[in-house]
């Protein structure tokens, strides 16, 4: 036996030189050799040096046999191979791997495969792709299921675009994997590779079906299978796959989407409308807001004239949407249900119920409320119809159709006063016809009202806007005198206080129409008449004076050239600000001023109240003044009022209240003049916004107020309403309801 010539050349029994061997050592056998550990993961790309797979070094080599010399230990070889690969000394690394192959037991397939894979990785690092592939193949010859080699061959084939080889190796890899999830994933990749390679549909389907069997709840696999079935027109199988997807998801919206896909397939591919409708209803059960399912189902049911079935679906959807607190969607479906009941099922009571439900969700929807009004007309419930039309007027005051319908209904009911103001609104909107114009010519008022009784506080509250605040007004009434006196003192120090000239005061008992109109308006409204002072600046019409005593500045444009109707409006509107609860606004006209006054008043009861930095000094000044000047009785009243405020959470909408006072003033002016044309003419001529209300805001409010029940009731209470005994032109015939509605 020859002696070894170097550390890399040695002789094994049989006299064969190690350096003359190729890398394939599968014919050599040595049952006493140790086994290697399992292989490591996929090697990195060929442009880097992949780490070697290591063998099991913890198992010592068996003792030498008498028949042969001791074999070299494999551990040093692998260490040297590692070191060489890290240094990119690839030939040295290959030499060590070849040595390891010569000493390993050929029957240890796993170890042999790992060593061949290591050699292949080094070849890849050297850029020798073909030699790398040959060694990976040798690894597979040693162990057909060697995962690292199979994965590497897949990667190499994919890089070269060799689709058929990718399929071959992926198939082998899939069946080499034992863990179900891993095998399922690889089968999915195999199916994708088969599709890319142009394989038959059956082969792809088989791969995906087996993958799905291994992971029956995996949505990704099922979706991939569904896509395959869809692309190859396997519609029944596609339906089944979506059934499985539905069974394996807890997401309602996801289930609804799957059901709708089934519905579409049934409808467009299998032409089975009944089953398609069933799937759509299931989709709506899972997700009532599935708009496309609802629209499609509605179209089909409508074409088939299946009104009852459609109504039942709408009812179910509305209930589910309401439970889910999806208000907008519930309103939309409820409105469709109401229309369906009215126009198709001829179910008047059911339609009324549905429209009412819709309006509970969106009270401002004019279309739904108008439809409800017409249903009331059809049922003969004209008072209810009028009530709905009045609500529409508040929501959309420039809608001419509302006033036209109100005119017709009031005429039929012999309510001339209310018909008159509906006609006036149409005139203001430029939407009159001959009947309206004739009516206005006969009944339009030519002078202010002549009430038999003054306006009571209850009547005033009846016509005030929605932003009124009784608690706030109570607080302002209690602190009014002290707050006004404080501001008078401040204005006096600043030389900004208005001083009334006794010689320029108007005599309310005199012959002047302006003074007499203000005196009359004060009596009607129940307001003490302030001093009327002539102003010669040429700009003032009517203005509040910040003086020591209540006073109104009256300019030349009021003293001459105004009709009595116009004076009535100006006087009525202006005097509202001199009511006890409103008077503080004359001295605290801005939102900041009013905020400081209210917080200063509340601080008397709650001294530790937080104060906005911007007006903190003014609040503290008012607090000190009110604390010192208010009587004990006034403080007790203030405490009671603030306790009411606390009971509602301390909320105050000061700007909203300021707007309500201005709108109330405008309404009172209109009430006194009784002619909408006069009131809107003056309002539209005023360019200055008051309390952030434009002229158009005030005009719109007057339009809706003119046809309101509150306005009609107060006119009746004052004794100024027109009565049915007057001669009026006959009305045109009125359609009781739109086409399709029921009595």
Describe the structure.
The structure is a single chain. This protein has 743 residues and is an all-alpha fold. It folds into 3 domains: 21-61 and 68-160, Tetratricopeptide repeat domain (Serine Threonine Protein Phosphatase 5, Tetratricopeptide repeat), CATH 1.25.40.10; 235-443, Serine Threonine Protein Phosphatase 5, Tetratricopeptide repeat (Alpha Horseshoe), CATH 1.25.40; 457-718, no CATH class. It has 34 helices and 5 strands. α6 (163-176) runs antiparallel to α7 (180-196) and α32 packs antiparallel against α33 (695-706). The radius of gyration is 47 Å and the shape is elongated. The N and C termini lie far apart (121 Å).
Unreliable runs, pLDDT <50, ≥5 residues? 1-70, 731-743
The best one-word shape is elongated
Count the DSSP helices: 34
Instruction: Using the CA coordinates, give the radius of gyration.
Output: 47 Å
In percent, how much strand structure appears in the residues? Answer: under 5%
Provide mean pLDDT, rounded: 86
- The assigned structural class equals mainly alpha
- How would you sum up the major sheet? 3 strands, mixed
Percent of residues in helices: 55-70%
Number of separate structural domains: 3
Strand order of the largest sheet: 3-5-4
Termini separation comes to: 121 Å
What is the count of β-strands? Answer: 5
């Amino acid at each position: 036996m020859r002696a070894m010539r170097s550390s890399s050349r040695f002789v094994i029994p049989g006299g064969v030189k190690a350096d003359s061997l190729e890398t394939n050592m599968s014919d050599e056998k040595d049952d006493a050799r140790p086994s290697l550990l399992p292989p490591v993961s996929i090697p990195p790309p060929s442009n880097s040096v992949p780490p070697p797979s290591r063998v099991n070094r913890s198992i010592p080599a068996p003792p030498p046999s008498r028949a042969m010399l001791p074999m070299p230990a494999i551990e040093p070889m692998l260490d040297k191979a590692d070191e060489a690969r890290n240094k990119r000394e690839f030939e040295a690394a290959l030499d060590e791997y070849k040595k390891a192959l010569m000493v390993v037991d050929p029957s240890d397939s796993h170890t042999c495969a790992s060593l061949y894979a290591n050699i292949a990785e080094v070849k890849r690092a050297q850029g020798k792709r073909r030699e790398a592939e040959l060694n990976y193949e040798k690894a597979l010859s040693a162990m057909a299921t060697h995962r690292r080699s199979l994965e590497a061959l897949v990667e190499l084939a994919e890089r070269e675009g060799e689709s058929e080889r990718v399929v071959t190796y992926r198939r082998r890899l899939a069946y080499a994997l034992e863990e179900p999830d891993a095998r399922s994933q690889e089968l999915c990749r195999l199916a994708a590779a088969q599709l890319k390679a142009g394989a038959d549909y059956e082969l792809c389907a088989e791969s995906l079906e087996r993958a799905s069997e291994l992971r029956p709840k995996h949505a990704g696999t099922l979706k991939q299978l569904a896509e395959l079935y869809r692309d190859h027109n396997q519609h029944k199988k596609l339906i089944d796959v979506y059934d499985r997807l539905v069974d394996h998801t807890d997401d309602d919206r996801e289930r609804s989407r799957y059901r709708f896909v089934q519905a579409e397939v049934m409808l467009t591919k299998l032409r089975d409308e009944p089953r398609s409708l069933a799937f759509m209803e299931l989709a709506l059960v899972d997700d009532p807001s599935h708009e496309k399912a609802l629209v499609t189902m509605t179209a089909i049911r409508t074409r088939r004239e299946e009104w009852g079935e459609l109504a039942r679906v709408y009812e179910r959807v509305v209930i589910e949407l309401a439970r889910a607190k999806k208000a907008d969607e519930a309103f939309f479906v409820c409105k469709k249900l109401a229309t369906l009941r009215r126009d198709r099922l001829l179910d008047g009571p059911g339609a009324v119920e549905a429209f009412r439900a819709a309006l509970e969700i969106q009270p401002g929807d004019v279309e739904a409320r108008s439809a409800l009004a017409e249903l009331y007309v059809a049922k003969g419930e004209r008072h209810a119809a009028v009530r709905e039309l009045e609500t529409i007027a508040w929501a959309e005051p420039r809608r001419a159709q509302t006033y036209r319908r109100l005119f017709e209904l009031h005429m039929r009911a012999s309510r001339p006063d209310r018909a008159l103001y509906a006609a006036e609104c149409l005139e203001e909107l430029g939407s009159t016809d001959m009947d309206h114009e004739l009516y206005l010519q006969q009944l339009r008022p030519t002078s202010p009202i002549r009430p038999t009784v003054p306006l009571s506080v209850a009547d005033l509250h009846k016509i005030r806007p929605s932003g009124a605040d009784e608690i706030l007004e109570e607080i302002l009434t209690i602190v009014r005198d002290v707050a006004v006196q404080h501001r008078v003192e401040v204005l006096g120090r600043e030389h900004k206080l208005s001083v009334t000239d006794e010689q320029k005061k108007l005599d309310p008992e005199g012959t002047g129409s302006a003074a007499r109109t203000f005196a009359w308006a004060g009596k009607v409204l129940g307001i003490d008449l302030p001093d009327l002072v002539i102003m010669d600046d040429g700009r003032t019409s009517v203005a509040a004076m910040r003086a020591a005593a209540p006073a109104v500045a009256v300019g030349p444009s009021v003293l001459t050239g105004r009709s009595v109707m116009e004076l009535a409006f100006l006087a009525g509107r202006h005097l509202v600000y001199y009511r006890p609860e409103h008077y503080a606004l004359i001295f605290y006209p801005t939102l900041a001023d009013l905020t400081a006054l209210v917080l200063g008043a509340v601080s008397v009861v709650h001294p530790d109240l937080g104060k906005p930095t911007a007006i903190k000094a003014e609040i503290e000044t008012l607090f000190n003044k009110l604390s010192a000047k208010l009587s004990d009785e006034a403080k007790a009243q203030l405490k009671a009022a603030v306790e009411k405020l606390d009971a509602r959470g301390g909320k105050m909408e000061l700007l909203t209240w300021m707007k309500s006072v201005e709108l109330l003033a405008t309404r009172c002016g209109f009430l006194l003049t009784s002619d909408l044309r006069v009131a809107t003419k003056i309002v539209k001529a005023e360019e200055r916004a008051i309390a952030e209300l434009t002229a158009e805001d005030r005009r719109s409010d007057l339009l809706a107020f003119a046809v309101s029940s509150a306005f009609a009731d107060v006119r009746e209470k004052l004794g100024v309403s027109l009565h049915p005994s007057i001669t009026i032109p006959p009305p045109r015939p009125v359609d009781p309801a739109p086409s399709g509605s029921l009595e």
